[in-house]
Design a protein that fits this description.
heterotetramer, A: 255 residues, alpha/beta, Elongation Factor Tu (Ef-tu), domain 3, 2 domains, 7-stranded mixed β-sheet, 5 helices, 16 strands, 35% strand, B: 312 residues, 8-stranded parallel β-sheet, binds flavin-adenine dinucleotide, binds flavin mononucleotide, binds FE2/S2 (inorganic) cluster, 2Fe-2S (chains A, D), metal-binding (chains A, D), Dihydroorotate dehydrogenase B (NAD(+)), electron transfer subunit (chains A, D), electron transfer activity (chains A, D), 2 iron, 2 sulfur cluster binding (chains A, D)
Chain lengths: 255, 312, 312, 255
């Protein structure tokens, strides 16, 4: 949990407006937990004051290399996509509590469900779980083939089922339409994606041990400003996505 | 020699910098980033008598050189703040500014009475200017009579100095400042946020669930400087200045305008080290201005005999 | 098909964009940069009955995402404006908004009577909100009764529709809007500038010779959007929205908030082609929102049955 | 008078915080008059809204190259100094009315007086006058040797006298202390520098035909906003520095 000043190694557009940004430098060695995020400063001077939360998509902690995959949509991410080799990126991290890998043992089964720009953190998680000896399956949902990314890389880790809203690749439909074959195996479920996806997922994961990563607009990103709260079954009645999450057991938080 | 210490009623600060209320929680979170004993003081998040959950999300939005927030005074209530939050601040030995809010006068009085008794609380800061809850005190913040009445009542029950935090959403800030001074306020805090809104083009709805929110950040600094300049000449109680401070230069600008100490809010989000970095940088700016002690510059833009040519 | 035309009392505009008063002189200067007939309308610099020299310099300062100005209503006076300035606008065939200012009610009435008679003047815009001269009308801009009284008197002598330009430096913009509506205003213009200040660290004095100045630019857009949102729901006369508009998206945001036309001020300084470029870009934004005519989105953030899902 | 988007050719620090910026591109061909200025956009996005007026220091209209020399002091010029080859500069120009060279004939004499950052436009003016056959002398004032620039280049055009406030080069004192030998020749005087210099100069130029270039904070830079007015002996009682000036006959304007 530090402010890092990392060097851009590469910036590649890997799908329609989706970028893979690789940065390097001191501090990445602490990014060991998939599902944690970094809080990225965008723009010059004081025109953009709020940082952008971006998940760790992959981290090579031995070589201090961090990969982020993000969609350039608004002002901040559009700026980020113009950074190139030689530029510096100011980010805070690692922040939050990621996916707890201890809940599935070596030899166990895990299903990782991701939608759209919720897919990136599942790559690091899948890699780590596979390393540990967990049999990993992925159910990935995208709008269209032009928005899809990393599918080949996921296939190197485990079985992959893809759904697209327009059917241009994989099955036409939602991620919930392609995951039954995996849930039949009673895996632990780890998911990240937009709230509607998580809501739909809730029916499919009934009786399963499931962990979701949530999104909310953030101020501080470190637990101080109460911007990112979410109603929860905790004594205080709420959790903060940034510091208590972003990953919660599905029962803990009301979606 | 310490060139940075300032002294305000109830606040002996080794430097003029404190995080602003609501932008630093109760300190715990930023304590993971740096040693809070570096700070001149700390202002904690608004406390209400009973716990509040606050507004629905989204609660923040970005604007050009600023941000909107509509947190809605979320806090665990005075009791829990005392039992669970304040103790964490003890090790740092810095003055604590307890920001209090409420709906009715009685709420303020109850919170004030309880919090002011706490050993760790140095002063109270009456938040009569929260724009984000219908009954968040803003009704007191724009009417001089109501503000004065509330100040008087809180002063009666408080065993610590009382600062009143003024809203910038008024036509005449001098009038507000004078009303609360006459009512017995020991100091002023200013400014709270301006009321703003952003509308999302896709949904065609306000970005914030609460629709409007409080505008903070460098965008509002010129309004803050102007209001501090006006209020500081209209009253003789000291002012904790705030609104868009990002750099050591901004701190000096606020103090030249008339602030005796300066709070840093939104800057913490852009940079968690904002406060200690600004503190460390103050000496450089004082050197460049040939100022031997920071307190010399308070009100320097309007006080006679403080122009640079006469100062040495 | 023209998707951009809007119609307000006295203003038939082929698109909703006009340069804001004071940021475009009397048009002559920008006519060297582009064909003014591209504009929906033009608002000219504040006119007073007698010539005014305005404030000492410096008259402008930069702030984060904004600027301060304290021009001080410099203008050659109504007579010369009619004889030397207005004729230059004739060839462009666009509606002219004549902004008028004054010290006493009589000044406004005199200027209003003369200017409203001029064939080229489409409507009057009562500037009761200039923060930069002690007697620049701001006394009318923060008191609903005074604003209403002035509006009534000007309405009596004006042969053209009268828009009242509101100051954002008030606690309750609805109250001001309703007061001038009841007094007979045909429309509102909002917002004028917020009052701000910058202090120079070297001289320790305010940067502007006038000390305070009017804050404009993107920094104030959230305040403008919020006030337009509030006022447009409180009155039934149309609003010319302004405050920090830089892009076509900003125009749409203002119109979703409740503006029927939009004025562009400070943006002209950053980019002399700001107005024609914004106009040219509006179609793209409307396409992306699936809007067939721009007037559909006026007040779209609060009007029922205008959410995107129901609009087609 | 256009908005130009010019390519940075080079950026060189030629004295303490003084930069020479060379840019290239279409539009420079119209920058024929010394004393005119360009209005430079600085910063990214909307954080800096006011452009910075910078004089034309030299223009190669045949090759579309423009040189500006400026001091990096505040936010905008500091940003400008970070631009380098490959970057673009957005500027308006040429703006204003420059030095009228017709007031001195071929074979005549001209004295060009510049102080600090008022020196740059005199280079282009000197070059043009010399080309025309005017005998040009320069009186240049700087704070200190570390702030001085272009002295050798001026010497290629005409006689040069230098004053510095601390005496580190040239004579210790002000520009007014080194110009008597030139004024004795009854030259036409062209001057650019801070107001105190111009005021001091007024005594020295009594009886001489003198033209001063003025500075004032600007809004629009094109005559529309009334930010840059100055009291003047004109029918309207004022002039605008940006569009009526920045150069005026000394009697026209009260300093
Ligand atoms: C824990 C977490 C992890 C994330 N990981 C990724 C990732 O790996 N890849 C990726 O593409 N996106 C990710 N997101 C979403 C990403 O943060 C937003 O897309 C991004 O902040 C939008 O910024 P912008 O500059 O494009 O939009 P702007 O509209 O300019 O943003 C304005 C403000 O709104 C906030 N905001 C806008 N959309 C969102 C959103 N969906 N979620 C949270 N804040 C938002 C911005 O952070 C900023 O403060 C993550 C979000 C969270 C909370
Ligand atoms: C006609 C003209 C020609 C000029 N030519 C040159 C030149 O060739 N080289 C050079 O170094 N400087 C020149 N200047 C001065 C130059 O414009 C300022 O130094 C510069 O604008 C300061 O900007 P900043 O970003 O450093 O300062 P900031 O403090 O960030 O500027 C803030 C605002 O104040 C204005 N401002 C600050 N100082 C001045 C000043 N002295 N004059 C006018 N506006 C100012 C800026 O333009 C900006 O709008 C010229 C000024 C004028 C009017
Ligand atoms: C997220 C957020 C929460 C805030 N909460 C409070 C609060 O609880 N009480 C209060 O008096 N002010 C609150 N404020 C206002 C700040 O203390 C400060 O007055 C204002 O933000 C201007 O300073 P800045 O521009 O440095 O942020 C809050 C501001 C922000 C941005
Ligand atoms: C330099 C300058 C001069 C102005 N002069 C006037 C004026 O004469 N009359 C008036 O009603 N408003 C005047 N205004 C206010 C603008 O018309 C507009 O209301 C305000 O600047 C907000 O819009 P903007 O952010 O797009 O500039 C002036 C603004 C500026 C920046
Ligand atoms: S973003 Fe501030 S508490 Fe989570
Ligand atoms: S800068 Fe606008 S008139 Fe000169």
């Amino acid at each position: 949990m530090k402010r890092l000043n990392l060097n851009v190694v590469s910036q590649v557009m890997i799908a329609d407006n989706i970028f893979e940004l690789t940065v390097e430098g001191e501090g990445v060695e602490s990014m060991k937990v998939p599902g944690q995020f970094v809080h990225v400063r965008t723009g010059e001077g004081f025109s953009s004051l709020l940082r952008r939360p971006i998940s760790i998509c992959d981290a090579d902690t031995a070589n201090n290399r961090l990969k982020m995959v993000y969609r350039a949509q608004g002002k901040g991410t559009a700026w980020l996509s113009t950074r190139s080799r030689g530029d510096k990126i100011d980010l805070l991290g690692p922040l939050g509590n990621g996916f707890n890998q201890d809940v599935v043992e070596a030899g166990g089964k895990a299903l990782l469900v991701g939608g759209g720009i919720g897919v990136p953190p599942l790559y690091y998680l899948g890699r780590k779980l596979a390393q540990k000896g967990v049999a990993v399956s992925f159910a990935l949902g995208f709008q269209s083939s032009k928005d899809a990314f990393y599918i080949e890389k996921f296939k190197e880790i485990g079985r992959v089922a893809v759904a697209t809203a327009d059917g241009t690749i994989g099955k036409k439909g939602f991620v919930t339409d392609v995951m039954d074959k995996f849930t039949a195996e009673q895996p632990v479920v780890f998911a990240c994606g937009p709230s509607p996806m998580l809501r739909a997922l809730n029916h499919k994961t009934e009786g399963l041990n499931a962990y979701y990563s949530f999104e909310e607009r953030m101020g501080c990103g470190v637990g101080a400003c109460f911007a990112c709260v979410c109603e929860a079954a905790t004594p205080s009645g709420y959790v903060k996505i940034c510091s208590d999450g972003p990953v919660f057991k599905k029962e803990e938080v009301s979606i | 020699m310490n060139r940075l210490n300032v002294s305000l009623p109830g606040l002996e600060m080794k430097n003029p910098i404190m995080p602003a209320s609501g932008c630093f929680g109760f300190g715990k979170d930023y304590a993971k980033w740096y040693d809070l004993s570096l700070l001149g003081a700390v202002a904690i998040k608004a406390a209400t008598v009973s716990p509040r959950f606050g507004n629905p999300t989204p609660r923040v939005a970005e604007t050009e050189s600023g941000m909107l927030n509509a947190i809605g005074l979320q806090n665990p209530g005075v009791e829990k703040i005392i039992s669970e939050e304040l103790p964490h601040l003890k090790p740092y030995g810095i003055p604590v500014v307890a920001n209090i809010a409420g709906t009715a006068e009685e709420d303020y009085m109850e919170a004030a009475e309880i919090l002011s008794k706490h050993e760790l609380v140095s002063v109270l800061e009456l938040n009569i200017s929260c724009p984000n809850v219908k009954e968040g005190g803003i009704q007191f913040g724009t009417a001089p009579e109501a503000a004065a009445r509330l100040t008087k009542m809180v002063k009666k029950v408080s065993s610590k100095p009382v600062y009143v935090k003024l809203s910038p959403n008024v036509s005449d800030i001098r009038e507000m400042a004078q009303a609360v001074e006459e009512a017995g306020a020991d100091g002023l805090s200013m400014i709270n946020t301006l009321i703003g809104m952003r509308i999302d083009l896709k949904s065609r709805q306000p970005v914030l669930a609460n629709k409007t929110g409080g505008l903070s950040g460098p965008a509002i600094k010129p309004v803050a400087v102007r209001m501090i300049y006006e209020a500081s000449q209209a009253v003789s109680i000291p002012i904790i200045g705030m609104g868009g401070v990002m750099t050591a230069e901004d701190v000096i600008e606020m103090m030249l305008a008339g602030a005796s100490a300066v709070a840093v809010g939104t800057a913490n989000f852009a940079n968690p080290y904002a406060c200690p970095e600004i503190i460390a940088d103050l000496e450089r700016v004082l050197d460049s201005m040939d100022v031997s002690h920071i307190s010399e510059i308070i009100g320097g833009s309007w006080k006679p005999c403080k122009t640079p040519s006469l100062s040495r």
